[in-house]
Amino acid sequence: xxxxxxxxxxxxxxxxxxxxxxxxxxxxxxxxxxxxxxxxxxxxxxxxxxxxxxxxxxxxxxxxxxxxxxxxxxxxxxxxxxxxxxxxxxxxxxxxxxxxxxxxxxxxxxxxxxxxxxxxxxxxxxxxxxxxxxxxxxxx
Length: 140
Description:
Protein name: DUF2852 domain-containing protein
Transmembrane segments: 33-58
Shape: flat
Largest sheet: none
Low-confidence stretches: 67-78
Keywords: Membrane, Transmembrane, Transmembrane helix
């Protein structure tokens, strides 16, 4: 079996990534974009609009603008990318952020391998139980 090929992300991972992209896009445009999305969702399908409203309240996007500059990954680094004037600190900061991103990526890879190993063990147990002959059902 070739282990050099990266595993294909699950449907939930792809959906989560798409939703995170939509969330970031709306955050960049501010509270007005969130309200417009909520109204359009209510028009299209009221449960979806209600879900967006609940998310806006739960994540405090409804009442504050603090999410506009809060991003993960490379966008997060852009908010702190302004030079401070101290070149040693700027180099240290960049090195530390890169190291943290690498560690995060390695951790996600580890979690994926852990999930795959667990799935394999469960599947092997299922197959082992399936291949064993079933005892005859007792007759009354």
